[in-house]
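Subgroup meeting minutes
Present: P.N., E.W., G.H.
Scribe: E.W.

1. P.N. recapped why we're keeping a running log of single-chain structure predictions: easier to compare across weeks, and new members can see raw inputs and outputs side by side.
2. G.H. added today's entry (381 aa).
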Amino acid sequence: MLTGGGTGGHITPILAVAHELKRIHPDAYIVYIGERNGKYAEMTAGNTDIDDIRTVYAGKFRRYHGESWLQRLLDVRTNLLNIRDLFYFAFGTLQALLLMRRLNPDVVLLKGGFVGVPAGLASAFWRIPFVTHDSDALPGLANRLVARWATYHATAMPAEYYSYPSESVKYVGVLVGDDYGPVSAKQQAAFKREIGVPTTCELLLITGGSGGAATINKAVKTILPPLLQDFPNLYVIHQVGKGKAGIYEGFTHDRLHVAELFFPLYQYTGAADVVVTRAGANAMAELGVQGKACIVVPNPLLTGGHQVKNAEHFEKAQAAEIVKETTIISDQGVLDGAIRELLQDEQARARLGKRLQEMTIPDATHKLTMVLLEVAENKTH
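Output recorded in log:
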């Protein structure tokens, strides 16, 4: 049983694990538990590696990095949503208890996201073994809430980065699907043909993740027309995020392609010469496997500042160009300058891509899959 959700960044690794499980163990029966009425249900619907999809209610605890206790107390809307979601959480836990009792899985993977808490509590109640996976150096709240009952904690980084008992940590890396691999010049040209852009163009891909990034979108909307004018060989693909398709307010260009969500994304990242992205660990691992030159704008508001920590890790290794969101808000020209610099310097792109690739564990999905199969086998014995 695989569960996790809240963003597309939780679901794509789950699909990678499902595929690897089926490759190694074709008769495995895989159930995915997602959030009821979740925004990203289409990412799992119809996937041939998943045999059954169930949903439960899940409650999200909203809090933002850098907020004081007074700010949290005065944020009436957020507090009301948190109170409502307490009821979702309670009902979802009851649903998960019934599901676990009925399905009795051999092992459960909690990838992260608030939908994993009911599943983790239900697994603990019925003594069903489960494994968590953390993509970031800072474990997510959902995994921390159920950590004491986990059989193992699979992690993106070595054990010393985490507060889990060291004997329970399995350092596997960040999960990447087998669609992602090193991209040669020939493969990049093939990807460009597949997505319908000239093989000789310079391709800029902008993505704020499945939910989009308002600050990045706003900045790009401003700087894009001059970029397209100054770089006549430049094509731009912009993933704006769910519900944000109207940000360009009627502006169109024959070298601009805008969509809310590209799925699967590997063709677009594989075709890109430069990628503007958030600092989510899953996205950075996918780009790292492909060896892409990235301009990274970490989200400073996410819990614990984990994207900021991720970005610092890449900056220290000189594996990505880092632009702070606060900088973009005050001066959009900083992002414009970073993009122009990389578009004009092929050697700098190659250097960044190589360093990012060297930081990435390419077989993390296989390693985690083997951990899951080991736990499942132990349960049957």
